[in-house]
């Protein structure tokens, strides 16, 4: 592999004719293309982030793409606890730490590292997901594609090859960041709030405190206007009648959209998402989702996130940590926390014990109708298998190259076997 020289390059804003300044993000997320991205990280900076990836510390580096060079950019490793499993020297479920031990780790590139308005194909951040827990290398891309095909705004996702300091690191999922650029691409009015991982009510059924809502803002942080989310939480918290709760949901949510979201989430078993209420220290909470607060119709819209563990628990509880044993609307253990596997210290509470989720589950007929449509169209065997075939053809050579270079990369045989397992899980899901 040709080494990329570590040299000083022109600042990213000095070439107005650069391709990345004149095309938008649709170019990067073209489903028919497999692009290569090159990162140059000076040795001392690379050693720093490799010494403790879970610290998620940015260092300065360079991005090279199709003849364009952006310098400086910020580069760091990223991920939740699961992303570092088996990939740092001191791993624990509560506090992963220590030096990097895997070839690949998920990475984030901050384009506006020094200049706030700097953009790359209209984006300010790039996210490369390593997919270390997914030998099929398809879960992220397939999951987001299914949501988007059912008209649920979700991150765009494609595969990408990543080279670091001249060495091919492997194949990643390039996943769209959920921020103001995401809002502009998906909503006619993009001025609304985006929140990360804040629910309108607490596990105790009280309105979520304003401070928590403000801390969850990912757009409009300076305005600190959380009035709509606060009103939603207050309305839910102060009502017990189911018919009245349905009226509240229909006021603050797009009913068809939220039920479609729920259908897809449950069919693909996104068990590490908003319907998994993890419990510990006396509190329960969910994660891996965003909300968009639409200024036009004053609706709060749920956005899927972090699908690397989706599909895993369709046939059986392959991932005991994230497994949700309850069916949609089902309640276990009288709404008290319970352990659902041999991981007895990881407790959960049934999602339907949450007043908002419970209200969504009341729409049995609407949910069933949407599910029937989803299974017959977007999720049909012919439709999904064609996408999988197109994507596997696209990345096979890149999978082979990574296997040839790195002992911890799946072999082509292991990868193909995992793809077959995924297809078996999808076939099973169509019968449920």
Strand arrangement within the widest β-sheet reads 1-2-3-6-7-9-8
Q: What's the structural domain tally? A: 3
Using DSSP, what is the number of strands?
A: 16
Largest sheet: 7 strands, mixed, barrel
Number of helices: 12
Name the overall outline.
globular
**Class per helix and strand makeup:** alpha+beta
What does this molecule look like?
The chain is an alpha+beta fold. The protein has 3 domains: 27-176, no CATH class; 187-375, no CATH class; 381-429, no CATH class. It has 12 helices and 16 strands. The protein has helices at 19-22, 43-51, 139-149, 180-186, 210-215, 227-237, 242-252, 255-267, 355-361, 364-376, 381-405, 412-429, and strands spanning 35-40, 59-65, 68-77, 88-90, 97-100, 107-110, 125-129, 157-164, 167-175, 194-196, 277-280, 283-285, 289-294, 299-304, 338-339, 347-349. Strands 1-2-3-6-7-9-8 form a 7-stranded mixed beta barrel. It has a 4-stranded antiparallel beta sheet with strand order 12-11-16-15, with no helix packed on it. Helix 7 (242-252) packs across helix 9, helix 8 (255-267) packs across helix 10 (364-376) and helix 11 runs antiparallel to helix 12. The protein is globular, with a radius of gyration of 22 Å. The termini are far apart. Residues 1-13 have low confidence and may be disordered.
